Amino acid sequence: MSKVAVLGAGSWGTALSIVLADNNHQVRLWSHKKEQADLINETHLNTKYLNVELPHEIKAYSNIKEAIKGVDAILIVVPSSAIREVSQKINSFIKDDVLMIHATKGIEPETSKRVSQIMSEELTSIQAKDIVVLSGPSHAEEVGLRLPTTVTVASNNIEKAEMAQHLFFNENFRVYTSDDVVGVELGGALKNIIALGAGISDGLNFGDNAKAALITRGLAEITRLGVSLGANPLSFLGLSGVGDLIVTSTSKHSRNWRAGNLIGKGHSLETVLDEMGMVVEGVRTTKAAYLFSIQKNVEMPITHALYEILYNNAEPKEIVGQLMTRSKKDELDSYKNK
């Protein structure tokens, strides 16, 4: 039995808390809202984010210092925009031997840094190589219902990855290990962009052919950028790559697909984000990847198209027309950085 602090009481943090509690770990689920923490402790429910009863092994906290005191592992599951702030808050309180894991999928637009890079900058007692990332095709709603799910944990220190694997592994939640942190993080972050595009395509009633093409060509973009940053191209054919891409681009559980679907039906981005009431990581990641692709001179036409729709109010149908009439190319060449 381990003591684990889960920082972030949204849908994904709550679902992963259930996995940990099912494995008989003592789980401390931190929320920055005292009323949310109190409600979880009183009712064993977190219905705004996940409509399932929570195991009694999960205790909610609103004091982050108390939540991480004496724990064996810390799992950060806050939105990417809060990673730096949360890392700063816990920096002076954590032990240097604590197992540090994150399950956040995003990129910081201002710096183009991945989540583990942000954490390593702010957590002075934790070595960058020891940080573990958890990613894969995993809707919180299904994990909370204990439906079969498979993910990957990656770290440059494979022993740390194996420790995380042991922490989460059970009959409903299968966990593989990887040493490709770059590939696993980028696969998890960049697929949200393509999921937005898939939602827009469905909102425009463009059919399955268009969506399949978008997902496939989106995978080419993700792979190109990932390889240019040192990722193993095979990671993008794995759970954190094509696996997560498929589930996020084809399911109504996906916030990114739902947001894109509303945009495709003519709703403004501002209205969609207000209506969703939860973070849509793909919007922020689109901006980060757009800037990243220019900086690294990597061709990402779908990402650039979505940037125009999200940030310059371009008409989705016109942008699709521009994508369809781009210059002729060889399919396999387009997986290379050309």
In short:
With 338 residues, this protein is of the alpha/beta class. Helix content is 50%, strand content 14%.
Number of helices: 15
* Major sheet description: 8 strands, mixed
CATH-defined superfamily of the largest domain:
NAD(P)-binding Rossmann-like Domain
**What oligomerization state is this entry in?**
single chain
Mean pLDDT: 94
SSE order:
EHEHEEEHEHEEEHEHEHEHHHHHHHH
Keywords:
Rossmann fold; N-(1-d-carboxylethyl)-l-norvaline Dehydrogenase, domain 2; two-stranded antiparallel ribbon; 12 strands
Protein architecture, described:
There is one protein chain. With 338 residues, the protein is α/β, with parallel strands linked by helices. It has two domains: 3-179, NAD(P)-binding Rossmann-like Domain (Rossmann fold); 183-335, Orthogonal Bundle (N-(1-d-carboxylethyl)-l-norvaline Dehydrogenase, domain 2). The chain is 50% helix and 14% strand. It is built from 15 helices and twelve strands. Strands 5-2-1-6-7-10-11-12 form an eight-stranded mixed sheet, with helices on both faces. The protein has a two-stranded antiparallel ribbon with strand order 3-4. Strand 8 and strand 9 form a beta hairpin. The longest helix is centred in the middle third of the chain and has 23 residues, at 181-203. The termini are far apart.
